[in-house]
Write a structure and sequence with these properties.
Elements: E1 2-6, H1 12-21, E2 25-29, H2 33-40, H3 51-60, E3 63-66, E4 77-80, E5 86-87, E6 90-91, H4 94-105, E7 112-115, H5 123-136, E8 145-148, E9 167-169, H6 174-185, E10 191-193, H7 197-228, H8 232-239, H9 263-275, H10 280-306, E11 315-319, H11 334-344, E12 348-352, E13 367-368, H12 373-378, E14 381-384, H13 393-399, E15 403-405, E16 415-417
Parallel strand pairs: 1-2, 1-4, 2-3, 4-7, 7-8, 9-10, 11-12, 11-14, 12-13, 14-15, 15-16
Antiparallel strand pairs: 5-6
Helix pairs in contact: 4-5, 7-9, 7-10, 10-11
C-alpha cells in the first residue's frame, strides 16, 4: 500500500519505519523541517528506531520523509500521529484539525484515514470525519474509510516490542474496520477489533487512567507512610506476594511523558464538558501526582536541616532527569519541577543523565555534569530521581555523603528512601 504517516515523532516514526520494513511504500510527513532534515540524512532521534533501520528503509526506497504537503497525494492509507497537548486543562486538537485539512485536500475515493493520536471519545466521528468530508467533498463510509487505532508506544520497553504489542483497531463502519484491520495485521502480530472508534478512544484512556490513578495511590501512601514510621517499599513488596487481586505499583518523584500527565485529563475534560460532573478519581490523582516533586524537595530540605545545613547555597546533584527508566525523553519530567524549586530556594543544582546527549537542550535551568565519583562526593546531597542502568549505583553509595533515593535502589547509612 501507499501509506502516509503524518507526524514523525515518538509514535509516527516507529510506525512508518515498521510499515516500510514489511513492504509498504511509506511517506513520513512532518511540518518540522529540522526533523525532516535529520530523517533524510538517516539520523533517528527516536530511541526505539535505530538509525541503521532508518537508513535501510531509506536506501531501499520504501520510506521517504517530507515537509511538503503535496507529497502526501495518492495515499491508500494515511495515519495521523500528531501531538494532542493540554492547554490550561483543555485538549488542544489544533494539530489534528490542521492535519485533517491537509489530508482531506488529497483524499481520493477508496482511501482510508486512521487517527492514532490520543484523544477523548468522539473525536474521530465528531471532529476528524467532518473536516475530511468538508475539505475533500467526499462522504465518509461511502467514498472513503476512516477509523481510530490508539498508539501503545512504550519507549525502552524490553519485554514488549512495537510489533508484539496487541493493536486495538476500529472503523466507522464494517468496511473501514476490515481495511484498517488488514493494514495493521501486516505490521502487528495481534490486532484487537472493537465495535467503533469511541470504544477504541475510551480504551486508550482507560489504560492510562488505570496507571495514573494507581501511581497516585502509591505516591500518596509514600507521603503518609514516612511520618507513620512505615517503610513503604517493604510494605509494597510484601503486598505484591499475593498472587491475585494485586498489581505492584511503586512511588516516585511524579509522573511525566506525554501520556500519563495529559491523557487522563482528556477524559476528565470531556466528562465535565458533556455531563457537567467531575471525574473525581482523575482530578484527585492529578493533584497528588503534581505535588510529588514538591514533596521530594520538602523531604530534601528537611534532611539538610537535620544535618544543620540550609538548602540555600547547598550543592545538590540530581541523578536521572528523564521521566522514564532508561529513556531519553524529557517531556513533562518531574525533574524539571524539582530543579526549579531547588533553584528558587537558592541551591546550587547540577543534573546528570547519561541518556541525554551532551549539549542537548533541556527544560532544566541547571548545570549538566557527569555522574562521576568526584561530582557525587562534592555534593552536599544527591537525589536519585531515575535509576538508569548506566548509573554506577555502588559508586554513589560509596561516595555520597547523603542520598534521597526516590527509586529504592540504594542502601547504606547515608541513604534515605522516598
Amino acid at each position: 500500500m501507499d501509506v502516509v504517516v503524518a507526524g514523525q515523532g515518538y509514535v509516527g516514526l516507529p510506525l512508518a519505519v515498521r510499515a516500510a520494513e514489511v513492504g509498504h511504500h511509506v511517506v513520513g510527513y512532518d511540518v518540522d523541517p529540522d526533523r525532516i532534515k535529520r530523517l533524510t540524512a538517516g539520523d533517528s532521534y527516536v530511541e526505539d528506531v535505530a538509525s541503521s533501520r532508518l537508513r535501510a528503509v531509506l536506501d531501499s526506497g520504501s520510506y521517504s520523509a517530507t515537509a511538503d504537503a503535496a507529497a502526501v497525494a495518492g495515499f491508500d492509507i494515511a495515519v495521523i500521529t500528531v501531538p494532542t497537548p493540554l492547554r490550561d486543562g483543555v485538549p488542544d486538537l489544533s494539530y489534528i484539525r490542521s492535519c485533517a485539512r491537509t489530508l482531506g485536500t488529497h483524499l481520493r475515493p477508496g482511501a482510508t484515514v486512521v487517527l492514532e493520536s490520543t484523544t477523548y471519545p468522539g473525536t474521530t466521528e465528531e471532529l476528524l470525519l467532518p473536516i475530511l468530508e468538508e475539505t475533500s467533498g467526499l462522504e465518509g463510509g461511502v467514498d472513503f474509510l476512516a477509523g481510530f487505532s490508539p498508539e501503545r508506544i512504550a519507549p525502552g520497553n524490553a519485554r514488549w516490542s512495537f510489533e508484539g504489542t496487541p493493536k486495538v483497531v476500529s472503523g466507522i463502519d464494517a468496511k473501514s474496520l476490515s481495511v484498517i484491520k488488514g493494514f495493521y495485521d501486516s505490521i502487528f502480530q495481534t490486532t484487537v477489533p472493537v465495535s467503533g472508534p469511541k470504544v477504541a478512544e475510551m480504551a486508550k484512556l482507560i489504560e492510562n487512567v488505570y496507571r495514573f490513578v494507581n501511581i497516585s495511590l502509591v505516591n500518596e501512601l509514600a507521603t503518609l507512610a514516612a511520618p507513620l514510621g512505615v517503610p513503604i517499599w517493604e510494605a509494597i513488596d510484601a503486598a505484591a506476594t499475593k498472587p491475585f487481586g494485586f498489581m505492584r505499583f511503586t512511588p516516585g518523584p511524579g509522573v511525566g511523558g506525554h501520556c500519563l500527565p495529559v491523557d487522563p485529563l482528556f477524559l476528565s475534560w470531556k466528562v465535565r464538558e458533556d455531563l457537567g460532573v467531575p471525574f473525581r478519581f482523575v482530578e484527585l490523582a492529578d493533584d497528588v501526582n503534581r505535588r510529588m516533586p514538591d514533596y521530594v524537595v520538602g523531604r530534601l530540605v528537611q534532611a539538610l536541616a537535620e544535618r544543620h545545613m540550609p538548602v540555600k547555597g547547598a550543592r545538590i546533584l540530581l541523578l536521572g532527569l528523564t521521566y522514564k527508566y532508561n529513556a531519553s525523553d524529557l517531556r513533562n519530567s518531574p525533574s524539571a519541577r524539582v530543579a526549579e524549586l531547588l533553584v528558587s530556594l537558592g541551591a546550587d543544582v547540577r543534573g546528570a543523565d547519561p541518556n541525554i546527549p551532551a549539549g542537548e537542550d533541556t527544560p532544566l535551568n541547571v548545570s549538566r555534569v557527569e555522574a562521576s565519583a568526584e561530582e557525587v562526593a562534592a555534593a552536599d546531597a544527591v537525589v536519585l530521581l531515575m535509576d538508569h542502568t548506566r548509573f554506577d549505583l555502588p559508586m554513589v553509595e560509596k561516595h555520597a555523603s547523603y542520598v534521597l533515593d526516590c527509586r529504592n535502589r540504594l542502601s547504606g547509612p547515608n541513604i534515605e528512601t522516598l
